[in-house]
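ARCHIVE RECORD
Type: protein–small molecule complex
Small molecule: fe (ii) ion
Source of inputs: curated submission
Record status: active
Notes field left blank by submitter.
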Amino acid sequence: MTKTATIDNVIPRADIIKRAARIGAEIRNVRLSGDLPEQTIGAINEVLLEHKVIFFRDQGHLDDAEQEGFAVRLGKLVPHPTVGATKGTASILELDSARGGGRADQWHTDVTFVDAYPKISILRGVEVPPFGGDTIWSNTAAAYLDLPAALQKLADELWAVHSNAYDYAVKTRASEADRKHFDEVFTGTIYETEHPVVRVHPETGERTLVLGNFVQRFVGIPKYDGQRLFDLFQSHVTAPENTVRWSWKQGDVAIWDNRATQHYAVNDYGDQHRVVRRATIDGEVPVSVDGRHSVTRIKATKQAPASCLIARNAFHGFAHEHVVSNGAPSCGRRAAARASPALGRSPDDRPDRPGHGRTAAGKDRDPVPGLGRTSDIHGAGRGPRLSRPRSSSNGSATPSAGRRTSRRS
Ligand SMILES: [Fe+2]
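STRUCTURE (tokenized, with ligand):
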């Protein structure tokens, strides 16, 4: 049976209402719950893969437990790697405009600062302001197809460094609560991960652009040139024709394929209260068009035990705890010795040097001198990584939410 037939047998086509030509569809007459038949779950996943983001009205019966009860049918629940999960839940991330970190008003793909960032996000409208607060999604597969062939080829070869640590001060709309949340929670642990700019979608085989707010630089490209490249590629992602915009009502649920989209929460509702809650499904380590996997290079804890504070990065001003393959903190001589020479050097100073990052042969090189190597983090050695280091690196392994300014989810 074809996938189309599978969908037709479960969800009538008349109940799938496209909301824009390239992305987005509303599904009607489905009551989301953990008890849905397997066929319905399969059909929902197929519609999601086709439309990238799907919407359901009138799901006010859902609470956190019911939301997760449905979400877990689509995959493994995973908490946010730095914010964690709401108490009593496995993955729920609350975005409350009245509290710090509640406004995700920059284009981003969720949590790309870790390697296996989430594959699906499921967002529930809990408190919706009477005006404003829409969310916009873009199709990163269509954006890739829009690129001229020469730019597709360039994108295929590029890798980018994503991090949750960036110059937050440039965000002009950030409140004091937002800044406090950013400093004390969102960047409690700092990640730097190298992703291919183009990944191959594990279920559809589509090529999608992996960019957004968490990109800090391109591997092997000077910062000045990299900024222009970023703007060029990102402009194809966020072109209005490549997006869909959703006006929330209380009880709405939006589900997006985080491997094929970016999104932006429009911050146009002033001081009105807006609360949304997200359940998140664990993802796969992205694979480039030539078969190489993303790599987390740095996992650095701000509040590390004193004995583990081995280096201070002048760029971010944070101390770095190096973690070894058994998941235990390492304060080893090797890491300290490697870190020391780089003190005072900004990560942005160096990635443009010849041979930085991965060579054409896939050999790993030190991406940010002095902040440790993959081997410090994952015990992976010098060779190209072909498997995910989750069990080793973080304990949280996980992962899982954005431009150089703002907030992030
Ligand atoms: Fe987000």
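CURATOR ANNOTATION: The chain has ten helices and 18 strands.
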